[in-house]
Amino acid sequence: MQTEVFSDIFPLLNTANPQTLEWLINVAVEHEYPAGRAVLMEDTWGNAVYFLVSGWVKVRRTSGEDSVAIAILGRGDFFGEMAVLDESPRSTDVISLSPVKLLTISRERFIQILFKDPQLHHRMLQLMVRRVRQINIRLQMRSCPPAIKLAHTLVSLAENYGKNSPQGKEILYIPFKDLAEVTEITLDETTKIIEKLNEKQWIKIDTAKNSIYIVNFPQMVNLANKF
Question: Where would I find the Cyclic nucleotide-binding domain in this sequence (predicted)?
């Protein structure tokens, strides 16, 4: 993989210097997983940071025999950094929702890179702060109507990971149970809202391609911002 491509895929790396990118490419290890595979397991020690080259994963937290999806990540994102930075066991599982390709960088080498490249270090802090802000927004939205909350989830996924297509922004056809858990609404509410959005032609579901297209993106953004 060329350094320019590496930088384009991952927002974390778009301020890194060329030497850092070259070194990262040389030390990264590639992995591929089919859909439904556990990529990371809770309570294992953080020994690497994971970069998502392609595909979708869900981050889930388990309690006893129950598990709840708390985030959905797509191409260009990364995970595993918290356990690496605070040297503690991982607090979540990561499960592939589609076939995925990942690059991993060992804890020791990732820490070394952060110390060597101040721009990368600063960018890492920026993205971690952005994640905290996103959590704060979700907390503010807890009392919002389910339709607004689900629209916000779909818009966020489209803005962060969606692909442009003639039919609109394309995202993975994410299982409704996972969408419901991430949005913090019920499965029944999720199903009814998705059906309504599909009827209004704001979205289009293509099960053959395993995709959801957000056809009327401006209207979805307008709905998502009503909190």
Answer: 12-131
